[in-house]
């Protein structure tokens, strides 16, 4: 630990003020915000991932992340927050949480997990944002449906016709 004090000339007199008698840097960490936030949305889920920079490996394993996402046209005050259960720099949002045809923005921040005793930190600043939109569920077109129907009907009808012709030719030859 360290002892932190302020010294200065105040009103013509030198003074020393003891600010922190036992300052421990490991208990006052502020991390840089996550970088390179990216997203990939499908019809069933949206995957979001990012990286952290300038974080020692022993802290990277005990980080806690918070995701915030909202409709892109809304303000961050109405955003949804999720504290992520894992220290992995990724998350999935189920499609049921997203509306079709709406663009969403997401950002993330990090800190040392509250479950950690050796280190303590405040939340980092928010990362840059990523914008994503739920992919539409592909619809089966009428043309494909008709083609498939014809394939399923063509084979039995052809087989039935061949049997009919074969049976008729066999009977007529007697």
List the topology elements:
Blueprint (H helix, E strand, L loop, with lengths): L1 E9 L2 E11 L5 E2 L4 E7 L3 E7 L5 H4 L2 E9 L8 E4 L6 E5 L8 E10 L8 E2 L7 E4 L8 H32 L1
GO molecular function: cytokine receptor activity
Protein name: IL9R protein
Subcellular location: Membrane
Structural notes for this entry:
With 174 residues, this protein is of the alpha+beta class. Helix content is 21%, strand content 40%. It has helices spanning 57-60, 142-173; strands spanning 2-10, 13-23, 29-30, 35-41, 45-51, 63-71, 80-83, 90-94, 103-112, 121-122, 130-133. Residues 33-134 form the Fibronectin type-III domain.
Summarize this, please?
The protein has 174 residues and is α+β, with helices and mostly antiparallel strands. It is 21% helix and 40% strand.
Low-confidence stretches: none
CATH superfamily of the largest domain: Immunoglobulins
> Distance N terminus to C terminus?
111 Å
Residue-averaged pLDDT: 85
Organism: Elachura formosa
Keywords: Glycoprotein, Membrane, Receptor, Signal, Transmembrane, Transmembrane helix
GO molecular function: cytokine receptor activity
InterPro entries: FN3_dom (IPR003961), FN3_sf (IPR036116), Hempt_rcpt_S_F1_CS (IPR003531), Ig-like_fold (IPR013783)
Which descriptors apply to this entry?
single chain; 174 residues; alpha+beta; Immunoglobulin-like; 3 domains; 21% helix; rod-shaped; transmembrane helix; transmembrane
């Amino acid at each position: 630990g360290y002892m932190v004090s302020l010294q200065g000339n105040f009103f013509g007199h030198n003074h020393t003020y003891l600010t922190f008698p036992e300052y421990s840097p490991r208990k006052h960490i502020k991390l840089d915000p996550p970088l390179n936030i990216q997203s990939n949305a499908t019809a069933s889920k949206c995957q979001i991932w990012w990286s952290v920079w300038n974080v020692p490996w022993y802290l990277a394993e005990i980080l806690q992340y918070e995701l915030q996402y909202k409709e892109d046209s809304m303000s961050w005050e109405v955003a949804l927050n999720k504290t992520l259960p894992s220290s992995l720099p990724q998350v999935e949002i189920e499609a049921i949480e997203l509306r079709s045809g709406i663009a969403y923005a997401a950002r993330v921040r990090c800190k040392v997990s509250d479950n950690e005793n050796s280190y303590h930190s405040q939340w980092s600043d928010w990362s840059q944002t990523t914008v994503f939109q739920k992919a539409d569920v592909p619809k089966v077109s009428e043309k494909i449906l008709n083609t498939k129907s014809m394939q399923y009907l063509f084979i039995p009808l052809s087989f039935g016709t061949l049997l009919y012709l074969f049976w008729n030719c066999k009977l007529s030859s007697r």
